[in-house]
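Key result, reporting period 2: structure in, sequence out.
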């Protein structure tokens, strides 16, 4: 599991376009937004790979002024009891 918090600042005139482009990504939430162009974006990706690729894709969206990673938590996926050796099915 990889949870990342990204602060995105978009051109106010392109706020809605950037917002829609962000919501088209899988595993993205925008819990806080302001029509002056600022948004807090949360990415909850499966796996333990850093979200650098997602950050670069966000930075490449037309209208994005800045996108900065402000929080990241990476945790190995824990197998369920039934998938562990000796676990019950």
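The corresponding designed sequence is given below.
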């Amino acid at each position: 599991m990889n949870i990342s918090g990204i602060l995105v600042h978009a051109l106010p005139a392109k706020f809605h376009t950037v917002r829609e482009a962000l919501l088209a990504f899988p595993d993205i939430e925008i819990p806080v937004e302001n029509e002056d162009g600022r948004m807090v974006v949360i990415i909850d990706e499966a796996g333990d790979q850093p979200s650098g690729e997602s950050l670069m894709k966000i930075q490449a969206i037309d209208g994005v002024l800045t996108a900065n990673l402000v929080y990241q938590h990476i945790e190995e996926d824990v197998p369920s009891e039934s998938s562990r050796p000796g676990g019950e099915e």
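Strands lie at 2-10, 28-33, 38-45, 64-74. The two ends are 24 Å apart (CA to CA). This case is discussed further under Risks and Mitigation.
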